[in-house]
Amino acid sequence: MPMKIDAKLGLDVFKLDKEPHIVIDTEVCKTVCKDEACLYVCPADLFERDDQGRMTVNWEGCLECGACLICCDHRALTWTYPSGPFGVQYRMS
Amino acid sequence: METVECIVVGGGLAGLSAAYGLASAGVEVMVLERGDYSGAKNVTGGRLYVKPIRGFYPELWDEAPFERPVARELVTMMGDGAHTTIEIAADRFTGERPQSYTVLRAKLDQWLAEKVAEKGAMVVPNMKVDELLRKDGRIIGIRAGGDEIGAQVVIVAEGVLRLLSSEAGLTAEPRAKHYALGYKEVIELPAGVIEDRWHLNPGEGAAQLFMGECTKGMLGGAFLYTNKESISLGLVVGMEALRMRRDGTESWQLLDAFKELPQIKPLVAGGTVAEYSAHSIPEGGISQVPKLAGDGYLVAGDTAGLSLNALVTVRGMDFAIASGYYAAEAVKKAKAAGDFSAAGLASYEASLRDSFVLKDLETARAIPGFMENPRLFTHYPKAVSRLLENVYTVNDQPQAGLFKKAWKGAKRDFMNVATFKDAWSMRKI
User: Shortest CB distance from B251 goes to which of A11, A42, A79?
Assistant: First the structure.
């Protein structure tokens, strides 16, 4: 059995910021976006639609690759790196 | 506003290499790194080709904390249930001065940051730069949190996403077409197991690339690098291809599927996954290299798009270190002349054009376009494996002669207009 993606992320060191560093303009996802690239590209599987169909992101497990930002053609994401001491801290990579 | 002579945005290999050269020459330099330490936000496949950069800072490389010198190069073409591997082991890859080493970035970058600090540069961790400050079309410093720091010159080595440089109008925003997503697991295995599995002498390493089924035919491939006591196993997939997928496959699932293949499973058996990481990779080639210098700034490393996937050799870190070196040289000249304008810093681009960095990227100009051909990742890996599988097959039927079998496979899969066209397009790469 392959390791679950959550378990893989559990191996990484994260320092959690109080504020999300990715903010989604869910209106754009709802009205403009048909391709939902973020769902396919995110290597940490952080994007999902909630019960109401709104796009959400579990930014806490972000690997900071930026693939969602590069692949979103609709500019639905406000994306910065986590500030100061926060975010993923790779020990090997 | 507090000011220093030079600010380096980003303490990765490009930024650190620049800072090392500047600090060695007595230039006041401050490196701002957003991670807990240099390397905390970096990911490599990976392997560093050290031959191209040995001439820069020659005192450094003999003591660098590399993993293993790469003695064996393997490329695996993956078809349906059949893989073909070509392996080349050459004495000249290793010996006294190996051409390349596998590396892990947290260790390598931290070590280089210490060397930079020893030379007298300030290396500040946990410092995310929020903005490049512009005045009258000139970069005059940075803003980090509430603080503004001025500089005569800013070396922008912020990494692949160009968040600051595109905001300041120095580079274009990344587009999916010109980028790939790389992601990997670091899997711990004892050194002896690694050496047995890849047929290595003690301490030596292997690098293996895979193309075909591992990306479901999308532009890209898988990679495997042996470290001292772990392997880095991962995938690189073109973002445009990934973005346009309609079969529901998500990027992370490809890596799991790859690891489950019967041909791959024994390579990772008994290993313990220790880390999972991901990073974007510039793959646009020389056509996507931005203007490299302007009034008060230079752009280096991944931010400048300096990486080269030439199918069998994949480079970026050597370019990063080289660009840092030449950035430092240019800043030293600018300082001597008291001119940090675009004209005063123009020697940077000239040096890069004169060096392997832009020469190799220029030579490879056609590669990004060549790689858009899906047959490279679908038809050929399959066809090669199919042909060879057939040649090696013995069943309960009388067998055709070796030549006839091979000819039949070649005729079916290679003797056609599409293959001739592909072969013709290869002359440019």
Answer: A42
Q: Which amino acid is at B155?
A: I
* Confidence category of residue A13, pLDDT binned at 50, 70, 90: very high
Sequence spans of domains, chain A: 19-83
Q: For residue B364, which phi and psi values (nearest 5 degrees)?
A: -95, 15
Q: Residues of B with CB below 8 A from A19's CB?
A: none
Measured between CA atoms, the residue of chain A closest to residue B248 is: A40
Tell me if residue B59 falls in helix, strand or coil. helix
- Predicted structure pTM score: 0.97
- H/E element holding B348? helix B347-354
Cα torsion for B289, B307, B93, B53, to the nearest 10°? 60
Nearest to A39 among B176, B183, B250 (CB): B250
User: What is the three-class DSSP state of B158?
Assistant: coil
Residues of A at the B interface, defined by Cβ within 8 angstroms: 2-3, 5, 8-9, 11-12, 15, 35, 37, 39-45, 63-67, 69-71, 73, 79-85, 87-93
User: In the A/B pair of chains, how many CB contacts fall below 8 A?
Assistant: 147
For the stretch B200-217, pLDDT in tens is 999 999 999 999 999 998
From residue A53, alpha-carbon distances to A30, A41, A45, B84, B247 in Å are 8, 19, 17, 45, 20
Tokens read off for B336: 């001597």
Q: Residue B215 and residue B255: Cα distance in Å, rounded?
A: 9
**CATH architecture, domain defined by A19-83:** 2-Layer Sandwich (3.30)
Mean pLDDT of B111-119: 98
Pairwise CA distance, residues B251 & B257, whole Å: 10
CATH number 3.50.50.60 given to B2-64+105-172+290-354 = yes
Q: pLDDT at position B335, please? A: 98
Q: Looking at beta carbons, which residues of chain B come within 8 Å of A92?
A: 104-107, 186, 230, 274-275, 277
Tokens at A25, concatenated: 């303009």
- Main-chain dihedrals φ then ψ at residue B2, nearest 5 degrees: -65, 145
Name, in order, each residue with C-beta under 8 angstroms of B423's C-beta and a sequence gap of 6 or more.
none
CB interface of B with A, residues 4-43, below 8 Å: 34-37, 39-43
DSSP, collapsed to helix, strand or coil, labels residue B82 as: coil
pLDDT of residue B32: 98
- Cβ-defined contact of B275 to A92 (cutoff 8 Å): yes
The three state secondary structure string of A1-52 is CCCCHHHHHHCCCEECCCCCCEEECHHHHHHCCCCCHHHHHCCCCCEEECCC
